[in-house]
Amino acid sequence: MPLAKEEYISDAWKEGLFNNKVVFCTGGAGTICSAQVRALVHLGANACIIGRNVEKTESVAKDIATARPGAKVIGIGAVDVRKFEALQGAVDRCVRELGGIDFVIAGAAGNFLASINQLSVNAFKTVMDIDVMGSYNTLKATIPHLKESAQKHRVDSASLKPSPLGTGGRIIFVSATLHYRAAPFQTHVSVAKAGVDALSHSVAIEFGPLGVTSNIIAPGPIASTEGLDRLLPAPAMREYIKSQPLGRIGSIRDISDATVYLFSNTGSYVSGQTLVVDGASWRMSSQNTSSGQMGYPDFLLSGEAVQHVKGQKKSKI
Ligand code: COA
């Protein structure tokens, strides 16, 4: 559904900021990543979004294209970030049809709630594969294009003036905050996101000399996302919102604005960093003590299993 501009981007940014730029985004049909891409498209970029579900990915791409008349947004479905060849094919098509890749958002992720007792070896591996291997595959498939773009858009090292062509050669990994402390029922995601964070830091130092920047956006609780809906059913949500340091949860616009900041000239000297966009939520020590109806530690001690979570199978291992 087309969104009003104020829903996905603030009015702080200059129209045309990303003219002639191309963004490649995995997980681009999801609530957060589609908003990030929509903001960049609104500001002039063309885009390629990747997803597993063909129909959803193609229809979200069409919808994002409504953010700017003349925008080109390609939706490539049936691409699993765990499969390098499929991802490489999508990158090749993006470059062929849109002319290159200036920005990458590695956003594809897998998540569900499960205690370690419920989490099979394969379930743990599945999330590691989607998050860690998927991010690495995304990096490997896109880095030649990021290097090329970085070369064209370097800040002059003597005068420190930005390139007149704008910015390019930047990657953002979408991570989380739950591994900063620890969160029950999220072991798999915590371990995976810690790996994604380490990957981003390494990219920053290995490709920095070539002008590439690498950063992490760690969203806090964001309204209308699958993740938050899964964690907090409606009645618990009201209490949760009240408990937040800013008295609210985040919007997709909060994440889009952080993305524009990192990809435009405002982020030129920011690399190897994590931009936590959570209204100080993770610093509240009480946040990890319960997940909706599942009070900690009572739920774990009860021996019950987390119910009604998409994708759950019966593996005992
Ligand atoms: N609790 C415990 N184990 C679970 C689970 C749950 N809620 N959901 C999946 N698993 C396990 C499966 O049982 C399976 O392990 P097994 O072979 O030992 O039984 C393993 O994870 C792989 O599951 P499968 O459904 O085959 O994997 P997939 O690759 O098709 O999908 C996900 C993996 C994570 C994408 C899927 O679980 C899912 O759809 N999650 C919700 C959507 C999502 O993650 N969106 C991203 C929001 S951040």
From TrEMBL:
<dbReference type="GO" id="GO:0005777">
    <property type="term" value="C:peroxisome"/>
</dbReference>
<dbReference type="InterPro" id="IPR002347">
    <property type="entry name" value="SDR_fam"/>
</dbReference>
<dbReference type="GO" id="GO:0009062">
    <property type="term" value="P:fatty acid catabolic process"/>
</dbReference>
<dbReference type="Pfam" id="PF13561">
    <property type="entry name" value="adh_short_C2"/>
</dbReference>
<dbReference type="GO" id="GO:0008670">
    <property type="term" value="F:2,4-dienoyl-CoA reductase (NADPH) activity"/>
</dbReference>
<keyword id="KW-0560">Oxidoreductase</keyword>
<protein>
    <recommendedName>
        <fullName>2,4-dienoyl-CoA reductase [(3E)-enoyl-CoA-producing]</fullName>
        <ecNumber>1.3.1.124</ecNumber>
    </recommendedName>
</protein>
<keyword id="KW-0521">NADP</keyword>
<dbReference type="InterPro" id="IPR036291">
    <property type="entry name" value="NAD(P)-bd_dom_sf"/>
</dbReference>
<dbReference type="InterPro" id="IPR045017">
    <property type="entry name" value="DECR2-like"/>
</dbReference>
